[in-house]
Each structure stands twice: as structure tokens, then as C-alpha cells.
Amino acid sequence: MLCCTLKKSPSESSSGLLGRRVLAALREHDVTGDLIRVVDHPVAFGVSTDEGDGDAWPQIRERVLDADILVIATPIWMGQPSAVCKLVLERLDAELGETDDEGRMPTSGKVAAVAVVGNEDGAHHVSAEVYQALSDVGFTIPANAVTYWVGEAMGSTDYKELDPEPEKTAETTRTLAANAAHLAALLRDAPYPST
């Protein structure tokens, strides 16, 4: 789980909360994982796997490549994925130039999903942008691979303040987890062919 909130720890984050709920739903399918709040790490701008001295991306990248499932959690800002999310996607762009011995990107056979929160419209737009970028760099997107909550435009209520969580969001989180876990198991047992 790469949490792309703009808020550094220990600040509460709606993206982080939805991300943790996705991880809890994945545990129901025997999938374990953890959440990395990207903004807590000195990730350099760039489009390579390592931007040099002090860049934290190589360690995050290693964890992403060790995982079968990547979930990106992002808030909506001005109808767009957060700047942190765009930074992550730009860093993942480096995977286009990396291949294994059989010509596949290191992300081939890995599943990706998206979690979106915000107080404005744009969840479908944000998920479409992130889906396309993740697909471009080799991830496979399962059906219903997004969960989201969008409050009133310019509203003052955040997802993290909702108790209980809206049932529709909880339902889409469960569906995302079930489909991502199922597809990851299938791809692990039957990898994509070499190119």
C-alpha cells in the first residue's frame, strides 16, 4: 500500500485510513501487507529507479516488486491524484526500461488497485489516471479495483471523520480485496508468457 497523502506522520490521513481498511479486507483473503506513507520518505523527483544519494525510492521500489499486489491510496486535489501520487507514478515509469531474462517488466504478473478519498468530485477520473499509468508499467488491473469516498464539494467533512464508514465504500473495499487477491493468485500460478 503506497499512501499518497500530502500529510506527514503522525497527522491523521483519510487516504491512510482507507488504505488500512483495504489492507484489513485483503487479510480476509490471506493477503498480508503494510502501508508506506510516501511523504514520510525522501523520494526524489525523477523517472529512474534510483535518483542518487539520499533517494528513498530504491527501498520502496524493492518492497513494491516483492509484493504480488500494489494498492495506491490517494486524495483528490483539484480533481486530480495528489502530487505525491503523480511522483510515485513518475518513478514507476522507470519500469518501462527494465526487463527480466524473458523480456517482461518486473511488474509483469503483479496486480494493482486504487483507493481514493476527497471532498470533491473526481474519484472516477483519478482512478482512471492511476489505472492507466499502472497498466502502462506492467501491472494488471482486476475488475472493480477501486474503492472510494467522495464528500460534498468544498465540504468540511473528511472520510476519517465518518463513523460508521459508509456501507457502499466498505462494500467496494471488500470487492476490491476479493478480486485483487483472486487475480494475484491466478497470475502467480500462471504467469504471463515471455515476450
Automatic annotation (TrEMBL):
Domain NADPH-dependent FMN reductase-like residues, every copy: 9-148
InterPro entries on file: Flavoprotein-like_sf (IPR029039), FMN_Rdtase-like_dom (IPR005025)
Source domain of life: Bacteria
Pfam families membership: FMN_red
GO function terms (MF aspect): oxidoreductase activity
Gene3D superfamilies the UniProt entry points to: 3.40.50.360
Protein name: NADPH-dependent FMN reductase-like domain-containing protein
Organism: Nocardioides simplex
